Amino acid sequence: MRTPFFVPLALATLGLGLSAQTPGQESRAFHAEAASRLQEAPQVDLRQLSGLRRHLTLCMLDRLKDPEFRAFLGSRIKPGQTMLPMEGFLKDYLELWPGKANATFTHHFQELDRQLRLRKGLEKHSTALLGLTIIWPKSGSMALDLEKALFVVKPDGRGKVQAPIEAYDLRGGRHWLDPQVQPEVPVLLMGLDGREDVRAGLACVNEGLRKAGIQNSDASLIRTSTTPTLGVAAQTLTAPILCTKLNYVRLSDDQEPWIKGAAEIYAMVSGIDPTVTKPEITIVDMPYLDYDNTDYYPNQILLFWNSYGFAAANIQFMEHDDGADYQKLLNEILTAVSIAMKVVPATAPYSFLVDLANAIIKAMPQSWYIDEDDYVDTLYTIEKGQSYTNYPCAGGKARVNLAPYTLQPN
Predict the structure, then answer these.
(1) I need a labelling partner for 168 at 20 to 30 A (CA). Which of 2, 245, 260, 338 fits?
(2) How many domains does the chain have?
(3) CA pair distance 260, 54, nearest whole angstrom
(4) Do 44 and 188 have their domain in common?
(5) Which residues contact 28 (CB under 8 A, 6 or more apart)?
(6) Distance of CA 140 to the CA centre of its chain
(7) Are 239 and 109 found together in one domain?
(8) Are residues 188 and 200 in the same domain?
(9) Strand order from edge to edge, sheet including 187-192
(10) Burial of 331 from C-beta contacts in 10 A (0-12 / 13-18 / 19+)
(11) Are 107 and 41 contacting, i.e. CB atoms less than 8 angstroms apart?
(12) Which domain holds residue 351?
């Protein structure tokens, strides 16, 4: 096993050149720079989220000079915990220590969060997005020691990270980490709460799909939960619904380097609606699916067959990254399927299933996301009433068990 390298550099905090400062001088310069950032008018740009992450990291490290704040942060992170939502944490701290410095810090983070939700089109779907991600070492103690932890600035971009990764210790010392080898100390990343971002983003897009008439209301049963929750549509049913349920899934490559932590996977299910005149698309959250080469048994409904005109549909697995512009995502879905529907063959409309899945894939890399979502794999033409055991996706990056399931009315 390669040893991860930590290369401490005495650098000016935001500069790129080397500095000859002593460690004490470096720390004072670091905290002076960080403190001055609270006075700046915050601006959020989805195209430069690494800049936002660095800003948040510097502000957090400067605040950690306060022993009370440092102790409170340590007390709120339990062994093995991977996410600390900032909204609740900062509100609780401000109630306990309502000083001017704490209020300024909290309000600064709240304003950045507001702008972030506005830029992502999520102001109606989420109250807060900022969070502190904790990546624990693969071995050793799961107790957090902030003196040993490193605060990392997560880089922009999708897929594999090649360049050394910028990190800071508690005193403001700068380090570079090997992108291929996870450190043997806890790593903390200021940025988005990825789980909340996915939840709110998929709610936003699914709402838009319903308003555009390309998502059946029964799909509300499967969008957000691994256990079916009977909504209004299901409560009025007088007959059972034929479904397909995901009983097992395993990813062989979730596309995420260690620095990006647990993956945020979701599924896009697509087919033709009962009128055979338009697509039926639902985006399904898969909050349990975090890591590759791991077996999951979700017992999750993915398909309600009464929503489709044919007894077949596609399932595409996607992986979320931070820079999602959800309004643009919705527009691109609508545009892609609108173009594809213009060439549905009248004599064999079922052949459009593959065209629909491919149209969605083709639209993605160009403009769906700024820090683009990774396309994982596709299950083409999954048939109603059929069972699939250890069934490979088209690209071989995932295997699933699917089985027929009948959802009974309450």
Answers:
(1) 2
(2) 2
(3) 15
(4) yes
(5) none
(6) 27
(7) no
(8) no
(9) 83-85, 130-135, 187-192, 150-152, 165-168, 174-177
(10) middle
(11) no
(12) 196-407
Residue 302 has pLDDT above 80, yes or no: yes
Are 177 and 302 part of one and the same domain? no
| Whether the Cβ atoms of residue 59 and residue 50 lie closer than 8 Å to each other | no
**Paired residues of 379 in beta bridges:** 315
Residue with token string 């007390």: 75
Reported as a pLDDT band with limits 50, 70 and 90, residue 278 is confident
The residue type found at 25 is: Q
Element (H, E) at 115: helix 100-119
Cα distances (Å, whole numbers) of residue 143 to 57, 89, 135, 138: 21, 19, 12, 13
Map tokens 């740009």 to a residue: 45
pLDDT per residue over 93-115, tens digit each?
999 999 888 899 999 999 999 99
Adjacent-strand bridge partners of 83: 133
CB of 109 within 8 A of CB of 90?
yes
Residues 163 and 236 in one domain: no
- Note whether residue 1 is domain-resident: no
What residues does 130 pair with on adjacent strands?
A: 192
First-to-final CA distance of the chain:
55
Q: What is the pTM of this model?
A: 0.80
239 and 180, same structural domain?
no
138-175 pLDDT, tens digit per residue, is 877 678 899 999 999 888 765 556 788 889 999 889 99
Query: For residue 301, what pLDDT band results from cuts at 50, 70 and 90?
Result: very high
Which DSSP helix (H) or strand (E) runs through 141?
A: none
Q: CA separation (Å) from 141 to 132, 137, 144?
A: 19, 8, 8
User: Residue 169: which residues within 8 A CB-CB, separation 6 or more?
Assistant: 8, 149, 150, 151, 175
Which positions ≥6 away from 239 have C-beta within 8 Å? 409
